[in-house]
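>> received
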Amino acid sequence: MNEQPEALRLADMIERYNAGVPSQAIVEDYSRAAAELRRLHAALAEPEQEPVAWMYHGIRHDDTPHERPSLIWKPEYMDVMSAEKGAKATPLYTTPRQWQGLTRQEFLDATQGLEDLEDCWMAIEAKLKEKNT
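>> returned
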């Protein structure tokens, strides 16, 4: 990919530029940008990981979920009834994915119009589960 060498080139250019900049705030900003470009380059260099298995909660005839999740090798192996009732297969990886928090806007959207603390807690928890599963 052409972006990886370009990111490293920009990081090196920023670090060289830092040497001649008198303002400490600007130096710190450029140093943070260089570190972020290097982090992005490292992330791009890693191959995307494939799931090793999938997990889902089956749904019974009476629309109640099974007590324990089922482990499957491919999402298409999910039982037909659970799939038709909206069960979703969650990919499982050998290494954990990075936790995804909420942005300020996502937080505000999730809790908009809620006044009860417990309702806010439940809305935030649901949004975090949605982003991290």
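>> The chain has a mean pLDDT of 76.
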